[in-house]
Write a structure and sequence with these properties.
67% of the residues lie in helices and 2% in strands. The chain is mainly alpha-helical. Strands 1-2 form a two-stranded antiparallel sheet. The longest helix has 24 residues. The termini are far apart. Keywords: Hydrolase. One of its GO terms (molecular function) is hydrolase activity.
């Protein structure tokens, strides 16, 4: 699976659990690296503006929501019914309805996004996509230190292919378990500190 596909799945998963503002962070880095006007650039640009339209509508910013719904629809127009497995018809239909009546968001939840027909959530992600989801969640909330989560992801990558899974589990649970996320972060932070302390001790032997 490509980084583009991992980014798409991570953003869709975060969006589907109601993190409408955070979702765009999964797509932004990929989008910025794409040439203007390509299908992939239009796909990510349209999805970013779609989530922004939903976010503004839920906050009662009707003019912002309708403007973004219109431009998102323009970016996504002409793309196939599915792109990288993402169902775009449901997105385009909702954008048209939101543009006509932004207050609809108060009457019904926005549609779930699907990849290959599945409404992906963080629990459905493999490690690569879950790591991206963990990064954007940490970035979204001030109570999490992004450097701690980044270090945990690095240690988790070292575990891939080995019998060790402690950091892999922490990272994937941090991305997926909203209810217990603060506790998971605290434990991750403690284990990151222990690992870094051991590393400093070893390095001190050779100073």
């Amino acid at each position: 699976m490509t980084r583009m596909d991992d980014a798409l799945r991570a953003g869709v998963a975060v969006y589907n659990v109601g993190e409408y503002h955070a979702a765009h962070d999964a797509w932004e880095d990929e989008w910025l690296g794409l040439a203007d006007g390509t299908d992939d650039e239009r796909l990510l640009h349209g999805l970013i503006q779609f989530t922004a339209a939903v976010y503004h509508a839920r906050r009662g910013n009707w003019s912002g929501a309708t403007g973004l719904a219109e431009s998102a629809g323009e970016y996504l127009s002409g793309l196939p019914a599915t792109s990288h497995g993402v169902d775009l018809d449901v997105v385009r239909d909702y954008l048209a309805a939101l543009e006509a009546d932004p207050e609809r968001v108060e009457r019904a939840a926005p549609p779930k996004l699907t990849v290959e027909g599945d409404a992906v959530t963080p629990r459905d992600l493999d490690f690569a996509a879950a790591a991206l989801a963990a990064e954007i969640v940490a970035e979204e909330y001030d109570r999490y230190d992004e450097s701690v989560v980044a270090a945990g992801i690095d240690y988790a990558r070292e575990e891939l292919g080995s019998a060790q899974t402690r950091f892999i589990t922490f990272v994937m649970d941090f991305a997926a378990d909203v209810e217990h996320r603060d506790i998971i972060y605290q434990r991750l932070s403690e284990h990151v500190e222990r690992r870094q302390h051991k590393k400093r001790d070893v390095e001190g032997l050779f100073d």
